[in-house]
Amino acid sequence: MEKGVSQVKTHKIRIRKPFILPRKEKIVCPFCGNSEEFYEIVENATFYIYYMQTENGNLEPLEEEAEVLGPVRFFCGVCHSDITHLKK
């Protein structure tokens, strides 16, 4: 064994400052208190669905695309109030 070489294993420990994990708050309708049922309305949207016709005449969808040109609004599923401002 050589002189000056320690047989003890050492480990480096890095200490970091605490960090905050982003937490999502549950959306609650301010008008009726609903926190479970919601829906969106997409205005001025175009949907493209590409089909292939089989030998027996059935149409089978191959691919779907959506093009949204207008605003997307968020509504309460119970009282149907516009609560778009709550969805981020």
Fold topology:
Layout: E1 38-42, E2 45-53, E3 59-68, E4 72-76
Antiparallel strand pairs: 1-4, 2-3
Could you describe the 3D structure shown?
With 88 residues, the chain is mainly β. It has no helices and four strands. The protein has a domain of 49 residues. The strands form two sheets. The chain has a two-stranded antiparallel ribbon. Strands 2-3 form a two-stranded antiparallel ribbon. A hairpin with a 5-residue loop joins strand 2 and strand 3. The termini are far apart. 2% of the residues are buried. The mean pLDDT is 85.
Question: What can be said about this structure in brief?
Answer:
The chain is an all-beta fold.
Quick tags:
88 residues; mainly beta; two-stranded antiparallel sheet; 4 strands; flat
Backbone structural class: mainly beta
Largest sheet: 2 strands, antiparallel
Q: Could you tell me the radius of gyration in angstroms?
A: 28 Å
Can you tell me the residue ranges where pLDDT is under 50 for at least 5 consecutive residues? none
Strand order of the largest sheet: 1-4
Distance between the termini: 64 Å
